[in-house]
Specification:
Helix content is 58%, strand content 24%. The protein is α+β, with helices and mostly antiparallel strands and 189 residues long. It folds into 2 domains: 78 residues; 103 residues, 2-Layer Sandwich (Alpha-Beta Plaits). The relative contact order is 0.11. The C terminus is likely disordered.
Length: 189
C-alpha cells in the first residue's frame, strides 16, 4: 500500500504546483489589464468621493457661518418674547416713523395667526410719506431689534398735478409682531 500512496502524493503535489503556476501566469498576463482598469475606475471613484467630501465640508462651513450670523442676530435682538410687547412695539414703530418724517394716519389691528409655539399679531397701518422718508423708515425698521415683519406694503400713486414738487404718497402696510405661544396655556384657559 505504501507504493500506491507515493504516486498519489506526487500527482497531488504536481497538480497544486501546476495550479499555482497557471494562476500566476493568468494573473500576470491576462488578469492584469482587467485589474488595472478596475484600479483606474476605483481611483476615479475615490477622486469623485474626495471632491464630494470637500464640497460637503464647504457646505457645512457655510451653514455654520449662517448659524453664527443668526446667533449674532438673536444675541442683538434678544430671544423671541413670551408675550408680545404690543404697546411698546407700536410706540417704537411710531417713533421711528416720526423720526423719518412719516405721518401715521391710522393703526388698526387685523386678524393675526397662531402657529405651534408662535403667535403673530397683525396691524394695518396707513401713512403718508415721500419715498426717501419711507425708504429711511424701512432701513431703520430692518435694523431694529423688534420681533416684527412687514408682510405687505402698498405705495399709492401721485395725487394731483404730476408737475408739482410734492412727492408725498399715501402708503399702507401690514405689519406682524411675534411672540412665543404655549398651546397648553391656551387650552387650559
Amino acid at each position: 500500500m505504501r507504493r500506491n500512496s507515493l504516486p498519489i502524493i506526487d500527482l497531488v503535489g504536481g497538480s497544486v504546483t501546476c495550479g499555482v503556476v497557471a494562476l500566476g501566469v493568468w494573473c500576470t498576463f491576462f488578469h492584469l489589464s482587467t485589474t488595472s482598469q478596475h484600479l483606474t475606475t476605483v481611483r476615479s471613484q475615490l477622486a469623485d468621493m474626495h471632491k464630494s467630501v470637500i464640497a460637503g465640508e464647504e457646505a457645512l462651513r457655510e451653514k455654520k457661518r449662517e448659524r453664527d450670523a443668526l446667533e449674532r442676530d438673536i444675541a442683538e435682538r434678544g430671544a423671541l418674547p413670551e408675550r408680545s410687547p404690543v404697546e411698546s412695539d407700536l410706540r417704537e414703530i411710531a417713533r421711528m416713523a416720526k423720526a423719518e418724517g412719516i405721518d401715521l394716519t391710522q393703526v388698526t389691528p387685523v386678524q393675526g395667526a397662531e402657529y405651534p409655539g408662535l403667535l403673530e399679531l397683525r396691524y394695518a397701518i396707513n401713512a403718508r410719506a415721500d419715498y426717501d422718508a419711507l425708504l429711511a423708515f424701512l432701513r431703520r425698521f430692518k435694523d431694529s431689534t423688534l420681533w416684527a415683519d412687514i408682510i405687505r406694503l402698498d405705495i399709492g400713486g401721485r395725487r394731483g398735478d404730476p408737475s408739482s414738487e410734492e412727492s408725498v404718497q399715501p402708503t399702507a402696510l401690514v405689519m406682524s409682531l411675534f411672540a412665543t405661544h404655549d398651546d397648553e396655556k391656551t387650552t387650559a384657559q
